[in-house]
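To: structure subgroup
Subject: Chain for Friday's discussion

All,

I'm putting the inputs and outputs inline so they're searchable in the archive.
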Amino acid sequence: MHRFFLTDRPLAVGDVVALDPLAHQLHAVLRLAPGDRILLLDGQGQSFPTELVQVSPRRAQGRILARRPASGEPRVELVLFLCSLKRDKFEWVLQKGTELGASRFVPVISQRSVVRPAAALVKKFPRWRTIIREAAEQCGRARLPRLADPVGWAQAVTWAEGPRFLPWEAAAGQEGWPGLGEAVRALRPQPQRLALLVGPEGGISPDEAALARSQGWQPVSLGPRVLRAETAALASLAIVLEALGELG
């Protein structure tokens, strides 16, 4: 059943809701007709099986048939602080990170970020939110991951909610700096929230690493190979979710 987030209005069983923004997709792309069913999601963890009662190129309506808890969310809130990346790499992480289970994305401007002005990042937010929404619909998420305002490195490292891990190539082989999977599996009890901070293409500077460590971020290794920033971000998400039993 095709899934669509409808988060701008309350949804209730028996209501006939306007679906005009979806009309073209329903009619021309998916070729659905009255009587076909779709699944609406409110972004708050509830799903609503809905029967289409009107479908045309510009107009669509559906009658909500039921309300059910939606599935597809990890038990832990996983926050990804990701330094801004050039071109489409950041978008790729948003899409695949949503599919893996990230709960929140926070763009970070660091010393070696290629895209530095916050205003330049904010201009991309409408497109980025569309990428997140479409990925969440495709992969079966119950909630839309949030996209936070851009922050500088010094502000990012002040985050103090739950365990915080800093994947860093300098951590490989360092005594007392474990692998990310090892560090997550050692957490007792299992946290409700966990944060990752991944650097830019040029890497994390020593000063930035020192500041993060002073604020309680644990440097961790992703293995003996140096990964590109976008690869490190997705590998980190996958390692954390596997270590927490979310990919089994």
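Points worth raising on Friday:
Helices lie at 23-29, 89-100, 118-122, 125-139, 153-156, 180-185, 206-214, 229-243.
Residues 125-139 form the longest helix (15 residues).

D.
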